[in-house]
Structures are given as C-alpha cells and as structure tokens.
C-alpha cells in the first residue's frame, strides 16, 4: 500500500484532485510541482496514515518507515543534502494539512534536522554563523512548544531576559554568539521541565513531529472545531515533510504571503506583504512591519519609504508575478500564496483559493467571466449567498473615525445614523416630519412595530440575536444592535448613559449592525451598489434557478423594496401587522372588546375600508404577480393594552368602562397563547373577522384589476390548520363572500384558498387537506416550534446552553432542522401532491431566506420560497446554487 507521495523537481506523484488523500496543502504542492512551479522537494504522508494512527492508538502501518526513508532519499538526491550530514545537512519543515484548512491542528515546525553538530555544518555551508544559530534556536523553540508541549512564553522569557542583560533591542541585534548562549539556556529549559534532553537525532526529531501532527487530529481544540463545522473525524490530516528554503539568509532573502487579487476590493491586482531576512510566520506575527509586494501598493501603503519587492528584488518579483498569473489561470480562482526567496531564488510554499470579502467575491466572479476564465454558472457558485447581506445595506466608511460609546450584538446588518428617540410613537412622529431617528428601547415588543418601521435603526439594551428587536429588524432589513448591556436607558429623563457619558433624546448616534458598535454622532457611510456587478450576477442566477422567489411583506414600502430586489410576488402578507397602526388599533380594540356579533361587525365595518386600501396598494405594486394574504393569526390579547395606565387610556378612548375592559382582558388571557386561541381558530369562532378580510381582499382585487389592467388572482391563506374541517368551515365563508362580491361587482372573481402548513398534523394529513386547499405554504417558524415543542419566545433561557453543548448544531429557527422539520415538510409535499398534483407549494418565514434551508426546498421540489425583502437577493442566489 502506498502511504507516501513525493513532490518537487518538476514532478509529483499526487495531483490537486487528491485532496482527500493528501490534504489541501499536499495536493496543491503536488499540483504546483507538476506544473513546473519551483517548490522545495518533499513528500506527503497520507490522511489514511492518520486514520490508522487514530484507530490503533498511535501506531503506524508496517510499510511506512521504509516508504518515508525512500522519500527522504529522494529529497536528499534532489537537494544534494542528507539528514545529519556534517557538510551538507538536510533540514525540513513538518507541516500539517487536512482536506480543509483547520485551526486547532499542530503548527508547523521549521528547521528540523538541526542539532549541536549540524548547526556548525549549516553555518559553514551558508557562510553565515548568525543565520545558522538563529535557525537552531527557532527550531528548539518551535519544536519545544509544538511537539514537546513546553510553553512558548518560557522561551520568550529567556530571550527577553538575555536582551535586557545585554541591553539589546531587536532580535536582529543579536549575534551568532548571543544566539549560542540562548540555545544553551533553551536546552537547559527542556531538561529542567521534562527531565530529558532536546532530541539530537534528526530521525527522532522527524518521527516526533510526525506523531505530534497526527496526534493533534484528536486534540480537544481540533475536535471542537470539527464538531462546530461538521467535519468528520474520519477525514484525518496529512503530514507534509519538505526541504527547507531560507528567507533568513541575509538581505537577498525574504519571505511573504500574497493574494493574486485584492481580497477586500476584488481588484485584479497582486496584493501582499513580505519581510527581508525573515522566516516563516514572522510576516503574520507582526514582529516587523512588512513591506508591499508591488510598487503601486507601496505608494498607497502606510510605509512608502520601505522598498517594495518589485523594487528590491526585480527578478524574483517578475518570476513571482508570472507564477501568480499562471496559478490563477490554472486553478481558475483567486489564489492565496506563500513564498520564500533564498538568496535571490524564488520558491513557492503554498497555494490555495483565497478568502475574500463579499464585495471582492462578487467582483472577482464577474471579472473572471469577462476574462473568459469561468462560465456564468460557475460565477453563480462563487459567491456565498449569505454574504450578500453585507452588500445590500449602507456600511460605515472604513476610513471614518469611530467614537464608540457602547457595543452590543450585531443583530441586523447595515449602519444608520439618527436622533435618539425612546418611544415608538415619538419615532413615528419625528419620522413623519422627515427626521432620521434611531429607536432606543430596553427591549421591543409587537407594539413597537410602527416605531421600528419609522426608525432608521434600532438599539436595545436587552435581548439576544433572536430577541423581538433582532428578528423584526432583520425582517425589515433595518440595522439593529441588540443587547448593548453597557447602556443604561432612563425613559423618564429621556437619556441613555454609557461608560460615564450621557446622551439625550434628540442627539445623533450611529449604530453599526455589522459589529454591534454604537457610535456618537453621525459617521460617513457607503451606499450599497445594486447595479453593475451585482445586477449581472443576479441575472445569471435567475437564468439557472427553478424556484420562484417571493417576499414576506405587508407595507407598501416593503413590497416596493422587495420588487427592487427582484421579488416575484408576495408569499406572506401578515394582515395583523396592518392593525397595529395608531389609526386603526382603536377600532381593532373596539372589535375585540365588543360582546356581540353586531358590536364586532360594527367595528369591522370601520376597519374594512382601511384594509381594502392596503390590499389595493399591494396589488398595484405587485402588478399581477401572485399575492398570498394570510388571515388574522395572533391571539387577540396581543392587540390589547397591558399596563394599568394604558388600560385606563384605552378604556376611555374606545368608550367602555375600565372594569369591562379588564374583564375582557382576563377572558382573553391564556397560559400558552402560542398554542391557544389563534390562527384559523379565530376565524372559526369569529367568522365575521375572516369575512371582513375576505371582502376587503376581493373588493381590492376588483379595484386594482380595473386600475392597472392586470387581473388580480389573490391567494387567501388560512393559518394554523390541523384538521380538514377547520379549513372547510372557513373556506365556505370565504367562498360565500367571493360570490357576493362578484355579484356586486358584476364580474367573476378568480382566487385560490390555501393553508399555511405549520402543525405536524397538517403535514401528516396533507392528502386530506389538499382536497380543499389550492396551495400550501409551509410556515416553518411555527412548524419548528410545534415539532420541537419549543416556544421561540421562551427559548432564550436555554438555547444558549443547548448551543454551547452542541445539542443543536445550528439554531433551528435560523436554519431548518432538515432531519425532523424537513421530514415533515417532505411528507406534506408528497401527500399534498398525491391528492392534487398541481398544488402550489411554498415556504415562508425565516427559513425562506436561509441558503441551507433553500437548498432543502429545492430537493423536495417546492415551487417558491418567500422571505423578507432584504433576503430576496440571497434567496435568488441560493435557489440558483441549489438548482445547479
Ligand atoms: P499554515 O498552514 O499555518 O499556513 P504552513 O505549513 O503553511 O502553516 O507553514 C507556515 C509557514 O512556514 C509558511 O508560510 C512558510 O513561510 C514556512 N515554511 C513552511 N515550510 C517551509 C519550508 N520548507 N521552507 C521554508 N519555509 C517554510
Ligand atoms: Mg501556510
Ligand atoms: Mg405561524
């Protein structure tokens, strides 16, 4: 069995395609060697050895020793060096490398092969004693830390003490003799701490390092990382052993890292940093300020006096640039490379596809199509849909100064500035005067919807990422910082205080939903760029996706925003939101408090024209695209006042006694409103409410149809159905209203009645429900609650604990639980289609805008997903990727 694959000298036994066996680093080292890129020779011990090692408690396959020896010979022949040789000693690096880059794994060990004897040989061979002893002390330090488990800072302390003794400042001030003294002290540290000397035999050193890499696959950090990122233990890591090249051999040597394009803007310009006379991770460690690679970047950098690589080493630079271009064309992807220059000679040490910002990902994908490197479909796969969020909102200019007064959670992306307001009514009042406001609340509740709508952004001092403020703000696409616990809000005084600083209502603040910062004053912003590259990528996505993308919207502003983002209809219009409006809530409350059907009908008659005009406007904006309107869903008590003051106020406003209002409140009180008198249960017990809504919908459809010339075919959705009889009773009322309105209007009315599938029972009897329902919309928010038996509003107290213990891999309210909730959806789809093959199927709720959930929706063949306006582009791209 082959356990070892060699590379270097223009050839390799592996290829980039062998990532599973060789790990990412090993596969790409092989690929580079094969394509003639200068790579120091070496070999990769496969991930299969890791699996063997893990299973057998740290032993190796029998053939391994011999295969490693052969590979070492080959490296020796290529380099003209041998392990432990007294004139030309071979030194190697030992590098881990899993299939995907994985923090938690063992760090790289450099300069392995040095010992008390070979260090002298290296000094002589290089003609540079300082270099040799510097390399040896680095080796003892790295090996001691990484392989032998000693503390890095114990070594650092020895170095610092020595520098103090000698009044030396920089590492570069130390001579060969200085390093020799330090090496003695380092070796003594090893003996003191471990009771055994630092290993002198290069082979012992090598197997020690190999064992440490394989052992690190099962260390606690790596295990946790794998669990969080769903990386199977069975993958294992590879070990790369590679001949050292030296960037620390004086001023004609250097080491650096680079991206083939700018990773933050995506510009097609080589971008990177290097250090002269340095080794390995000195660049990342920030010991010295690195220098720019290109002349252009040098001039724009903060240290333009330091020469660029282009200037300092023009030949090596030219070759490096050519190689970067070749690698990019070869991989057809932006590369992140590591290199070292040893006395003017360039060596490549790593290449992989580079991480980038959302903005860069977009630009690179589109540019590469224009350059003929990739197809439009490939471009669609190159951008992470979730990352688009960053592009759809204004962001704070990175160059702007930030006067941070507090930090909370980045609950909803985007940034906004405005006057501080502490109440939703005030927010609405000021917004109507054209002012920009930030609504600041301890926490928000459904009664704050109008204030949240009016505000540019929302700041709360309590609550997490799934608090009311966070969920609603994300739905609205408004920036939100939640749970800024350092801020004290005093509603009475109209002030907020943080870190000793007090800000009054009316003063300007800025919130940054990207990082949770609260800033004093206004800050320059960058506008989102929705044309250009963004529009082109979206167009390509639209060409390949099968599922339609609709939006959840009930206000004209949201509906318009969603259309601008490319929504193809409304998948969920939550009518209850329309009743929280200050103008309407009085009539709504009157209706709820009424004792008789007549009383209720009288109040509903007042609501009808308002509701109708809402729908006319939505239908007009949607211009013939489908619109699904859900009948009233929440329990009625949500519309009623809570505090004694409010009760008093409301009682007089709607003209009933306080006692009567209180009695009604008591009647409506429920132990568990989520499972209480809500959804279709309201329509069953108060059919006049559903009738009013149906009338408003049909009359609006007639009117909007006339006005726009686009016939409107509304979809009426009945929530929380668990029994076919519920649906039939409510549907009969709707059909009757349709008939009446059709007669009145003297025209036929086309419409569909369907149901929101959000109870497990509804999924299980979907075949029966489909006898009456023209469409299903999976309401996976409630379906998640009812499947798990978890109330989302009460989950905050234990969900963090659950997540900390990895009981949930992801929050099931953010990404659909495919195993449980998804299985129910699948049953619902199959049984629904059994009865009605052409039944329209969609999903609404948070999951409709979540890429992983969207991918699942594609596999079960839903017709559309519906999500909040700002997630529409994310859904378009995710649906396209799911279809590819
Ligand atoms: P990581 O996965 O953390 O990037 P690497 O294995 O790439 O770790 O090693 C880190 C750095 O060590 C490299 O970027 C390179 O500068 C240096 N290095 C590794 N192997 C060698 C080598 N054979 N010769 C010179 N430098 C090396
Ligand atoms: Mg690396
Ligand atoms: Mg619901």
From TrEMBL:
Residue ranges of the TM segments: none
Residues engaged in binding substrate: 574, 630, 758, 779-782
Keyword Metal-binding found: yes
Domain PEP-utilising enzyme mobile: residue ranges: 436-516
Cofactors required: Mg(2+)
Enzyme class: transferase
EC number from the UniProt entry: 2.7.9.1
Sample GO molecular function, one term: pyruvate, phosphate dikinase activity
Job description of the protein: Catalyzes the reversible phosphorylation of pyruvate and phosphate.
Protein name: Pyruvate, phosphate dikinase
Organism: Amorphus orientalis
